[in-house]
Structure formats: structure tokens, C-alpha cells
Amino acid sequence: MSDITLEQAQNAVAAALGKAIAIETKMNIAVVDAGGNLKAFARMDGAWLGSIDISIKKARTARFFDMNTGDLGGLSQPGGPLYQIEVSNGGLITFPGGVPIKNGAGEVIGAIGVSGSVVEDDHAVAVAGAEAVR
């Protein structure tokens, strides 16, 4: 199994920070490795304290299921095939802001989770971080 390097994780955080600054929002940004362990983290000045845990859980959720957390959220609605999955694995986050990180060969090597704004902003910042790794 391939794993994200520290340099790659830091590049993802840096790109996500750049996007957050560009859209004028304060974010917590977490990157986990292929095993779902925290590899890199940044909390922008003034970002919500409650979003620290959410950003880490979004990253872990994206890695555990190798999909965007917003996509998982669609499957976990009442009547959906994964209804109540968010109560598994010690708590998951099933709204946008978590994105798998892939290497140049298309293998998932980690994930990024972002929290601190509306979910559309969280997702955009996470995508910017994930796309910085190749």
C-alpha cells in the first residue's frame, strides 16, 4: 500500500490554506495517511475550535471509504443503503469537506478533511489540497 509522505501532506495543507485565504474563510485542515492516522494539520487563526475534530473526522471518513464525504452523505440518508453509517468507526462525518488524496498512479494514499465554513467552501478547500498532491 502506498502512503502519503510528510512533504505531500504539508503541500496539501499549504494549498488548502491558500484556497481558504483566497475565499476569505478560516479553516481547520487535517491530512491523514493511508491508515487514517493524522499526518499534518493546520488551524487558521480564529478558526472554530469545534471544527478541529470535524476536520479530522472528515479526513478519516474520506480515507475509510475512499470517497468524498459529501458523496457518502447522499448514501447515508434515511432509506439509503448506508443509513446511519456515521455512527460507525467511532463517529464519521457524512457532509462535504473530506476528499481522498491520490498519487500519480491513482492510488489512494491518504485524505484531507476541512471544516470551518459552509460545506461548499469546506469542499472547495479540501479539493484544492487534494489536487496539490500527485
Describe the structure.
The chain is α+β, with helices and mostly antiparallel strands and about 130 residues long. The protein has a single domain, classed as Beta-Lactamase, CATH 3.30.450. Helix content is about 40%, strand content about 20%. It contains 4 helices and 4 strands; from the N terminus they run αββααββα. The chain has a 4-stranded antiparallel sheet with strand order 2-1-4-3. A hairpin with a 5-residue loop joins strand 3 and strand 4. The longest helix is centred in the N-terminal third of the chain and has 17 residues. It is globular. The mean pLDDT is about 95.
Task: Write a brief structural summary.
This protein has 134 residues and is an alpha+beta fold. The protein is built from four helices and four strands; from the N terminus they run H-E-E-H-H-E-E-H.
CATH fold topology: Beta-Lactamase
Average per-residue pLDDT, rounded, comes to: 94
Morphology call: globular
CATH class: Alpha Beta
Which structural class should the secondary elements be placed in? alpha+beta
Compute the number of helices. Answer: 4
Which series of helices and strands comes N to C?
HEEHHEEH
Report the end-to-end length measured between terminal Cα atoms.
16 Å
Order of strands, main sheet, comes to 2-1-4-3
Strand share of the residues?
15-25%
- Main pleated sheet: 4 strands, antiparallel
